[in-house]
Request: fold
Amino acid sequence: MHPMQVRCLSLYIIMVPLVCLLLLFSTATHGLSDSEAILNIKKSLVVGQAKALASWDAKTPPCTWPGVLCNSGSVWGLQIENLELSGSIDIEALSGLTSLRTLSFRNNKFGGPFPEFKKLAALKSLYLSNNQFEGDIPDNAFEGMAWLKKVHLAQNKFTGQIPTSVTKLPKLLELRLDGNQFTGQIPEFGHELHLINLSNNALTGPIPESLSMMDPKVFEGNKGLCGKPLETECDSPFKELPPQPAIRPKSSSRDPLVIKIIVTVLAILIFLGVIIVLINRNYRNKQLTLAVETGPSSLQKKTGIRDADQRRRGRHKSDHRNGSATATGVENTKLSFLREDREKFDLQDLLKASAEILGSGCFGASYKAVLSSGQLMVVKRFKQMNNAGRDEFQEHMKRLGRLRHHNLLPIVAYYYRKEEKLLVCDFAERGSLAVNLHSNQSLGNPSLDWPTRLKIVKGVARGLLYLQHDLPSLMAPHGHLKSSNVLLTKAFEPLLTDYGLIPLINQEKAQVHMAAYRSPEYLQHQRITKKTDVWQLGILILEILTGKFPANFSQGSEEDLASWVNLGFHGEWAPNLFDKEMGKTSHCEGKILKLLRIGLSCCEPDVEKRLDIIEAVEKIEELREQEGDDDDFYSTYVSETDGRSSKGVSSESINLT
Ligand SMILES: *[C@@H]1O[C@H](CO)[C@@H](O)[C@H](O)[C@H]1NC(C)=O
Reply:
């Protein structure tokens, strides 16, 4: 997981639930109409399994009904799967659910044409796989669905062309159409998708450029497809190029070899022409360009970053060694590498790489870039880093580049320009802790269980301890710890990102956006201390245990999560306090409570009384992920209840060291 990616993703992911929560709160009073709407939906369904929806009953609130997903009393999702349902889907009734964002009717027996889901314009995901829907999907079936991210229509009996409206969905991430009878050519997509599966249809013709990087497997089972990434070449190389009206292959009876040669030469010329045009355009156009043209969108297209401000750089030759000059005469391609153990690439490789925006954060956007070698990198773009001059910036980056710790996401390289800096990091597969905590369930992924959460807390604490030790000159060596800046590896080992940036970020921006500046000591005394990172750790621990997103507590002041926990915590196990998604916690309550106390001690507003990072790490390390050791719930509970102070620090937990 890469820090840039993580942070961007997390920011993105944070904003979405925030907006949703706001929406949910604003509609939380509509429970009754939700109930009516769902009962109307039920009326239109034919239930195959007797009693399947029997508990959908006006006597009980809809949020207690199976398959109804709620947040704060509003219905945001219906997940009615594996019930042999058929009948019709009542879109009018569904549109009465004003907070509805996700809809799953997977594995049922619905038939007939594709319902008019576009009337549910706020939908984010639509899962209809494994049903018997049939017929052509109207070309405009997805028009106006600006939020739609996931469309799963696999294993139905859809026919006809893939509707082009689906390719224009601005937020689309996943599209599964496999196992249908779609015909015709695959349309060009406006941007790259995380997941696409078109296998087992009857699609024909060239695969569009925007999909030429996908795994060939996703096209399997379509006899008529050709072009990259498949081995079968299309008959005419023209088909792989953007259409050029001047040069359509003319049907002709001349010698096929001659035609092939002419065609190839023309193809090369056109290709070069297109490249020259693109390069020119990118030089002229400094603005962000949205990639809607054909072809995979490169980082350059996405960002408008130019690989050289050659003219200016020509005058500054002294301070960059050997920018690898290329055929186009571009000179400043120098990325400064901080790691010896990495494959080198230059800025041009990066700008050429096909890129996908991971998110836009407070300081700029992050992109996932796929280098030609197949390597995934995350590029984070900072526009608010004019605090430091070039030398100072480089010095600081070198210092950060020397850090080596299991729980830090390494910064691989950076690029310096006065008005803009890029940091290049590895890509983190599981994304950010924020995503895993707050969005996984709505994506249908399992949530983090208690042992995993404890492991993450431990890793984060170790990383912080290391930072404090190895960046002794910084008051808050991390300075921006929050769940979106913690990435998870495949094995759920946490990796901290965006550490050590306080000296570089413009002060005004930092004060608005960085976590350290939301600490009680800064809010009250405009002071950052050695314990400010500990406060951020405390908030993170509370977020991990409660599943509550700190910024959702009034005015984005994270202190309020701690107050909320303090209010609801009376020294004993309180199920409502903890994240229900944590799963089975019996026999672990003792440890969970201990960790909660540690979190609260880290959030102690009085800096003098707050734990320091060494104490916090020691206490956290004492907790074991495995069951069966020392304490159990009751002994801890009994011994700790009386000693707890209102600040959440129990004398017992302090004695534990
Ligand atoms: C695509 O879907 C098919 C089922 O139709 C599945 O077997 C295959 O694994 C999927 N491929 C990818 C790459 O997801």
Observations:
- DSSP finds 19 helices and 23 strands in the chain.
